[in-house]
């Protein structure tokens, strides 16, 4: 790296630049060092970043096409149906055997009466 021209001159009236003693210390005094931030300031910055990210995600949601929206609705409906099926299966497993038999007998008696009326 080339030295500036004013360093070569021996002019005593010029103030010669000096190397900084400790630039990290100067940055801390100015508040530029990231590790020197108080906890409250860190938390507030984190919240602000989270809020910005959330806003960007909401904007991305708004920009979805009609097809994507319909696909998401279908997916949600399928997930709800699967949950309902799973609840029914869990409920069927938990009920005693005589309740299942009684339900089957009720259905068969309804079918028999329906057939006899026809």
TrEMBL record:
The answer to whether the entry has keyword Coiled coil is yes
* Short name of any one Pfam family annotated for the protein: DUF1151
UniProt xrefs under InterPro entries: FAM107 (IPR009533)
Is Coiled coil one of the keywords UniProt gives this record? Answer: yes
UniProt keyword list: Coiled coil
Q: Which residues form a coiled coil?
A: 55-91
Protein name in the entry: Uncharacterized protein
């Amino acid at each position: 790296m080339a030295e500036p021209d004013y360093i070569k001159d021996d002019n005593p009236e010029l103030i010669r630049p000096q190397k900084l003693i400790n630039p990290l210390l100067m940055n801390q005094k100015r508040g530029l060092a990231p590790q020197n931030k108080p906890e409250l300031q860190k938390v507030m910055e984190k919240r602000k970043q989270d809020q910005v990210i959330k806003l960007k995600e909401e904007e991305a949601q708004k920009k979805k096409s009609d097809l994507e929206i319909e696909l998401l609705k279908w997916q949600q409906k399928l997930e709800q149906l699967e949950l309902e099926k799973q609840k029914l299966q869990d409920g069927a497993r938990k009920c005693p055997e005589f309740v299942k038999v009684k339900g089957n007998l009720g259905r068969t008696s309804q079918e028999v009466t329906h057939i006899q009326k026809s």
